[in-house]
Each structure stands twice: as structure tokens, then as C-alpha cells.
Amino acid sequence: MKCPRCKEEFTPAKRDLFNWLLAQQLDASQISFILLNYGTHLCTRCVADLKESFYSTGINPRYELKAGGNHD
After folding, report:
1. pTM: predicted TM-score of the whole model, two decimal places
2. Closest alpha carbon to 21 in 9, 30, 37
């Protein structure tokens, strides 16, 4: 399977998606982000990157406007 984030080949965990997400020690916002943006397993490197950088920006991805979105 190809990781939907980085497109590298990897072997996903044999767990169902929700239990896999719980096992990654992610918080609710991080789990929601993965489910809404990818909807499937990510490779180990991408999970680590996401955990490390999720809160490093001033704007949580949940609140970012889509390109061309209304700013009102």
C-alpha cells in the first residue's frame, strides 16, 4: 500500500483503522485530522512527523481556510 501522505510503499498494521489510530498515542484532534484528510493508515514516518509538528504552527489545521475560501 502507498502512504496517502508521502506516497511511499509500506505495509499497514493489521488492526482496523480506529484501533490503529488509538495505538499511535494521538490525541483527538490528531486522529480527526488523519481521518478527515487521509481516511486510512499512514506510514510510520508520517505518523511521527504529524505527532511532532501538529501543534508547531500558529494555526491549527482544523481552522485554516481552504484556498479561495471566504474570510468573513
Report:
1. 0.72
2. 30
Do 42 and 34 touch, CB atoms closer than 8 A? yes
Q: Are 26 and 51 in contact (CB under 8 A)?
A: yes
**DSSP letters for 2-71:** B-TTT--B----SS-HHHHHHHTT--HHHHHHHHHHT-S---HHHHHHHHHHTTSSSS-GGGPPPTT---
**Ranges of the chain with pLDDT below 70:** 57-72
Spell out the residues 6+ positions from residue 19 whose beta carbon is closer than 8 angstroms to its own. none
| Burial class, 27, CB count within 10 angstroms (exposed 0-12 / middle 13-18 / buried 19+) | exposed
